[in-house]
Amino acid sequence: MSAHTRPGWMEKPKPVTQAAKILALAAVVLLVCVPFLVILSTSLASQREVIANGGWVLWPQNPTLKAYEDILDGGIVTQALGVSAGVTVIGTLLSLACTVTLAYALSRPGVFGGKPVLLLVLFTFLFPPGMIPSFLLVKELGLLDSYTSLVLPVLVNVFNLVVLRGFFQGIPEELYEAARLDGAGDWRVLWSVVLPLSKAALAVVGLFYAVAYWNSWFYASLYLESDNWPLQQVLRTYVVAGSGITDTTTGEATVNAPQTVQMAVLVIATVPILLVYPFLQKYFTKGVLTGAIKS
């Protein structure tokens, strides 16, 4: 290969290759956007129009918010939305705090008991507890029908811990030594040196935790009564079971979950994450790759 020849991946793509990439990207965008557009349109259509179109509407003729009014006026979805938002915010903050402190401790050489703790954490990643042991533990701790049961059993995720630990290990040792020479303790080093340099990794791990808490429904079905369900469990009951939810305060069932109501609940459950993700997307690749390479 001559000195002026560039590798193949650095060459300017041919028109045919460029056109193929554009078509592939357009196909992926359509596969993602069209289903969401159908869901949104169906939620805004009238039930009569949905039935006339075989259950789905691509573009409603007379948009209406009746489906959203039905589910929000009933109180069940509104309460579930508040539960999901509270669990997501509080759970993400607590998980980040615990994961950051544990990852920082395990990333520093010479920490007493660091290796046994790391092996113990990795063991739980390879051999997770089963459903029955988890339920019995939550029951013995008195956490049944408590929102704590949605946070405490999943407070620290091993994958997120490994990512942050690898990121902290990648910070130049000279920065730690300089902070020590200035008289900084461990907490000061963590707060003033490590965290400001770890915004990308923290954003990614925070996004992982937030999405996990927001989308969680399985533990709610095991540990909570129906009047305390988060939004995803309500969504599952509406869409998968295709039935309304009984309000324990009145003993009456809500609407019978027609197609428009199902799609409206699905939109409400999806939009918050879609609004948050663009603000963290720029950190996503950098944070994951840096933590993974250094681990």
From TrEMBL:
CDD domains attached to this UniProt entry: TM_PBP2
A GO BP entry: transmembrane transport
Keyword Cell membrane: yes
A single Gene Ontology CC term: plasma membrane
Lipid bilayer topology: Multi-pass membrane protein
rRNA-binding among keywords: no
Keyword annotations from UniProtKB, A to Z: Cell membrane, Membrane, Transmembrane, Transmembrane helix, Transport
Highest taxon in the source lineage: Bacteria
Annotated signal peptide: none
Compartments in which it is found: Cell membrane
Start and end residues of each ABC transmembrane type-1 domain: 81-280
Spans through the membrane: 80-105, 117-138, 150-168, 189-214, 261-280
Pfam families tied to this protein: BPD_transp_1
Primary location class: membrane
Family membership noted in the UniProt record: Belongs to the binding-protein-dependent transport system permease family.
PANTHER family: ABC TRANSPORTER PERMEASE PROTEIN MG189-RELATED-RELATED, POLYGALACTURONAN_RHAMNOGALACTURONAN TRANSPORT SYSTEM PERMEASE PROTEIN YTCP
Protein name stated in the entry: Carbohydrate ABC transporter permease
UniProt organism field: Streptomyces acidicola
